Amino acid sequence: xxxxxxxxxxxxxxxxxxxxxxxxxxxxxxxxxxxxxxxxxxxxxxxxxxxxxxxxxxxxxxxxx
Length: 65
Description:
By secondary structure, this protein is mainly beta. It has a single domain (2-60), classed as Beta-grasp domain (Ubiquitin-like (UB roll), Roll). The protein is built from one helix and five strands. It has one helix at 17-23, and strands spanning 2-5, 8-11, 31-35, 38-40, 55-60. It has a five-stranded mixed β-sheet with strand order 2-1-5-3-4, with no helix packed on it. The longest helix is centred in the first third of the chain and has 7 residues, at 17-23. The protein is globular, with a radius of gyration of 12 Å. The termini are far apart.
């Protein structure tokens, strides 16, 4: 199915947000996920199944100075 991740179209198998994050090798502790313009709490990632056409923004926070 086709979804949009950070403005780029991607083809993925049906999965949850948690599975998508893990498959990309992202650190969940420093990540904010927005799905269809709604911020999704990390506790909900496992329960939310992605659907064709979903738009996600995966935002990582990086420390530094």
